[in-house]
Fold this sequence. Notes:
Blueprint: E1 8-9, E2 12-14, H1 18-26, H2 32-35, E3 51-61, E4 69-73, E5 80-84, E6 87-88, E7 91-92, H3 96-110, E8 120-122, E9 128-130, E10 139-141, H4 144-148, E11 151-158, E12 164-168, E13 179-181, E14 184-186, E15 192-195, E16 202-204, H5 211-219, E17 225-235, E18 244-253, E19 259-261, E20 263-265, E21 271-283, H6 292-295, E22 301-306, E23 314-318, H7 320-342, H8 355-362, E24 375-382, E25 388-394, E26 400-402, H9 407-414, H10 427-432, E27 433-435, E28 449-451, E29 454-463, E30 466-467, E31 471-472, E32 488-489, E33 515-516, E34 518-520, H11 525-528, E35 546-548, E36 551-553, E37 560-562, E38 565-566, E39 571-581, H12 583-592, E40 614-615, E41 626-640, H13 641-649, E42 660-661, H14 671-677, H15 681-691, E43 699-700, H16 704-710
Parallel strand pairs: 1-43, 5-37
Antiparallel strand pairs: 2-34, 3-39, 3-41, 4-5, 6-7, 8-9, 10-26, 11-12, 11-24, 12-23, 13-14, 15-22, 16-20, 17-18, 17-21, 18-19, 21-22, 24-25, 27-28, 29-39, 30-38, 31-37, 32-33, 35-36, 40-41, 41-42
Amino acid sequence: MVEFEPFHSAVNRIPVLRDKAQGLAEDGRLPEDLFATGKAPGHDHLEPEKLSGSIDLEMIVRTPLVFGEQTVDTKGPKDRHFIDLPMDGDDLVVPPTMIKGMISRAYETLTCSRFRVFGDTEDREGQRHPKSKHSDRLTYRGDPASALQLVPLRLEKKNSDGGFTAALLQGDTMVTTDYRENGITYPTMRAASLQAGIRGHAKLCLKEGLERLERLERMTPHLKEIRCHMTLCLHGDRGRGARYAYWQVTHIRDNSGNFVEAFRIDDSVTTIEDMADVTGYVYRSTAEGDSPSNLFPRKHDERVFFDVSRGGPERVVIGEDVLRDYRIVVDSYIAYREEEKRLNLPLDKRHRPNRATAEARGGEGAPVELKEGDLAYAVVERNRDGSHAVRQLLPVMIGRRAYQVSPRDLARAQGILPVSDRDEATAADRLFGYVVPEAEDEARRGDVSSRGRLIFGAVDASRAKIGRKEKTLSPLLQPKTTSARRFLTDSKGRTPTDEKGAPLARGEHFASGQFLGAAAYPVHRTLVERKNLDDSGFPRRAQDEVVLAGRKQDNIGVRLTARSWVKIGSRLRCRVSFSNLSRNELTALVWVLTPKNLVPPRERNDDPRTVGFLQMGLGKPLGLGALEVRIAEGGLHVISGKDLGAAYEDLSGCLGESESRAQVSEYSFAEDVRAELERQPWVQALQRAAFGYTDGKDVRYMSLEENKANNQTDFRTGKPKERRGLSPQDLHGDGSHRCTHIPPDEKRAPRSQGPRPRYRRGR
């Protein structure tokens, strides 16, 4: 992988626009039995006009197929993860459910159906298993600009309703303006900096020896009320780094009532003015006994929360909902630590827990609870009367924050949550069946579940060719919903932008009015064309070690080794029986099973090799598991309910014996319906993902360095910098074939040297 070169994202999203689909159905432009909601038909009778029969499927493996049972070898210095194809002696066993899952996902996309599962993930075998209901708001890492807007806060009293009365500690920002120099404003941080040791922009002046660090900690323990002197300093005035002003603690009052010089600010730092005898509270975000630099290499300061407002701190009420969101943020830190442990990252590569995380884990998984006297940072909004309301509490300044809306809330507003009652079933639910995730106790029949009208028979894998040369795969990164740019669209299925068409800031994702997309893994067309394969026909790129910052990441503990896999050119066959389908339902199923339909119109030609593919198994982001799925020659057999009923009545036939061979071409959408379908964003995106790209550019993950560059923000606004904040290219529209390109960082100008004079701050 070459970083900072144009590429196509290996993980993308397909719009799910239920409201638009239903509107087109109501207007008669798309079939109602495919795009409107309604009850699934029963299985107690055959409707005369409905169709039953069977489809013989032929599936050609176009890129290696990997699936099966995973095992772990713990004998070596590092655990190794293996996967083996399921075999019955010398015969490959392909579960029919895999075929069903592959086809149902395509049908679900074509018909813009509800998500049939939600809050789950695909494991390495391509099977789905529940993981999270996505009911909680997700979190993201805040940027420095948003950090400056945070207000330090102290919980003073717990209220009878479980909330708190708290004091906003806004430093000196309520009594003075930000410092300005040469037309440049330096916004002032509300919390003062307290250097935690010898590292930083000040010299530790306490008595020499190791005891001075212990003395400093005794004088400034977490949550202690202290009195101190401070000096206002400038950051970024040398032409490098963000510009802001901050108060630095210099003297601390000891137990004898004397102000002891604890720190002397370095001459290279521009200082503005001093403030004497300030009362504040020590906030140490670092866990007890840990060093600030362990949290972040450049971190050397803790904080002092204070307020010098003439009328004293403003009091606010903290509701239970805000406390719950605080727990969500802390839990997200815990989850990240546990993920690092699961991946067996070396201890020196893992993130250290902050104080809030460490205290939560110290409770053996007990809920995170705040108490009177605790300190935190607050996201506040100004009310009409000039007072403030707290919207979020956070444990650290630059850390994780909760998005505005949970994925489940977006899905509910979008109308794509799994079925909860029989009247809201969508096309895929009615055809493939469903189970209501949380049925009411008194629910019955269709309000609990509905059996599908397709039966997938045994898979004939006798023509499968098995590769047995071990292949160690590149790390398979599970799609993280927190990576919002991969999964969200606007109401038209496009990448969400602000009112000016610019990329959104990270905190603007997962907001009301946005839509969830369905995860998509575009086909790697170069692999389908048998390019970039090794001598055994396996993709070379799928075996690459990840390169980050120019260094190979060779941790075998996070990689999966396939000891057996299905080779390119293998053929699988399967019979699918169906009953009681409307003509449109059968037509939609045939559409999905016709590879030519999966090609974007701009890419179509007379070449029989120009087809689209469905995907199965694991490693889809690596290009694995692309199958050409079609109805075998003479493989469509159909009979109407009327004719089948007559056969049963006169004992001349039965289902499975009385169907007539039908031509696939008989089951095609009318031209106006086909044209309407191919104008829709979700169909165009399905086609692009199934076909891939013909420009030869890499289909890959964004590298860590590219991701860092892409997340760069303007310090003052929090908005992405120019050519940053890019999302994967929309899979639909005129630009669906274009690449994403993250430009590398520009070289920074060298920092000027030498001390600056001391200024007085304007009031």
